[in-house]
Design brief:
The chain is mainly α. It contains two helices and no strands.
């Protein structure tokens, strides 16, 4: 069985804030830099998957 670290409310809030800031950055770079937009998209997806895995 794989051990999973429990995160507390503050850590979850930090993850949500990071997702928010990534979304803000995505709206800025969307029309300027396709590569940066793709990196930000992958980072956001990764954080969302992590967040979902922690609240199950």
């Amino acid at each position: 069985m794989q051990a999973q670290k429990q995160v507390n409310g503050n850590e979850l809030l930090e993850i949500i804030k990071a997702i928010y800031h990534i979304n803000e950055a995505m709206s800025i770079v969307m029309s300027y830099d396709d590569e940066a937009y793709e990196y930000l998209t992958k980072a956001k997806e990764s954080l969302i998957y992590y967040l979902i895995s922690q609240v199950r």
